[in-house]
């Protein structure tokens, strides 16, 4: 086994610092006692974390972001699983067109998608509703769920399914007991990635957000247009801490490697 040389290690460290520095700076600024964006040179303070409670619109927007991301990612996975199985197992006219159609939102700027969705939903009379918000988010996260699910279905060992069929397994039993466990890592990975992209989406959502269901990224974007205080950094730091806690709980209960890579994911 060859080891990385000192230049490679230095390069890796610089890349990690480059990636983590903005996150660390945001977390540090969140503890400033000042009323403007600055490093806490005069001591640490929880002033801006306590201030979050004075803005219930941020708390409600967080709830809206959670249910929207959860619902849109589940729907996207529900579409991706049968679509990936069909694409991976069958060759039919329009197969490549179907794949290109599902993956096309990756190639279109979200600003363009936002304007297009706004125009479309206005024409059919659902603009500004939660239904339009859900449909738009399903479209933009579907490529992530589909691509990861397709990667696991493409290399699926069909002999296990054939053995189950020979033993008398029904279609539903075959899928639930054999197929789904085999493709579960791709499904879970697609679900997680779809959830993250939906929760973090702001560019397209600005155009179609419903007055009664504004997501947290959009609410933060609108806030920083008129304010320069560290409230948004404290919200960001709280989200980062919450993410770390959730990942730690999942690792403790299920194991991230087992959940995302499968039973043999860590074996060489």
Automatic annotation (TrEMBL):
**Record key words, sorted:** Cell inner membrane, Cell membrane, Membrane, Transmembrane, Transmembrane helix, Transport
Which Gene Ontology terms describe the biological processes this protein takes part in? Answer: transmembrane transport
Under the heading SUPFAM superfamilies, the entry gives: MetI-like
Compartments reported by the entry: Cell inner membrane; Cell membrane
Bilayer topology term:
Multi-pass membrane protein
List all membrane-crossing ranges: 7-31, 66-88, 100-121, 133-150, 178-196, 202-224, 231-250
Q: Which GO terms describe its cellular component?
A: plasma membrane
Q: Where is the ABC transmembrane type-1 domain?
A: 62-250
- Which Pfam families does the entry link to? BPD_transp_1
- Report the sequence similarity comment from the record: Belongs to the binding-protein-dependent transport system permease family.
The entry's protein name is: ABC transporter permease
Lineage per the UniProt record? Bacteria, Pseudomonadati, Pseudomonadota, Alphaproteobacteria, Hyphomicrobiales
């Amino acid at each position: 086994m060859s080891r990385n040389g000192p230049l490679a290690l230095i390069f890796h460290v610089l890349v990690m610092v480059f990636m983590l520095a903005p996150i660390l700076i945001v977390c540090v600024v969140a503890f400033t006692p000042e009323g403007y964006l600055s490093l806490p040179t005069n001591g640490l303070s929880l002033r801006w974390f306590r201030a979050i409670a004075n803005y219930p619109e941020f708390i409600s927007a967080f709830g809206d972001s959670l249910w929207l991301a959860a619902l849109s990612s589940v729907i996207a996975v529900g579409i991706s699983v049968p679509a990936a199985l069909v694409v991976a197992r069958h060759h039919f006219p329009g197969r490549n067109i179907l794949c290109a159609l599902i993956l096309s939102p990756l190639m279109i700027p979200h600003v363009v998608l936002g304007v297009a969705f706004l125009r479309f939903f206005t024409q059919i009379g659902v603009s500004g509703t939660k239904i339009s918000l859900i449909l738009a988010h399903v479209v933009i996260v579907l490529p992530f769920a589909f691509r990861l699910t397709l990667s696991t279905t493409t290399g699926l060992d069909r002999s296990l399914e054939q053995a189950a069929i020979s033993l008398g397994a029904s279609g539903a039993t075959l899928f639930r007991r054999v197929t789904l466990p085999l493709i579960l890592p791709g499904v879970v990975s697609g679900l997680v990635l779809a959830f993250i992209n939906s929760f973090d989406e702001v560019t397209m959502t600005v155009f179609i957000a419903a007055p009664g269901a504004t997501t947290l990224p959009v609410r933060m974007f609108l806030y920083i247009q008129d304010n320069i205080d560290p409230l948004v950094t404290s919200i960001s730091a709280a989200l980062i801490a919450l993410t770390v806690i959730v990942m730690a709980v999942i690792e403790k209960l299920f194991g991230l490697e087992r959940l995302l890579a499968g039973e043999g994911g860590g074996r060489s």
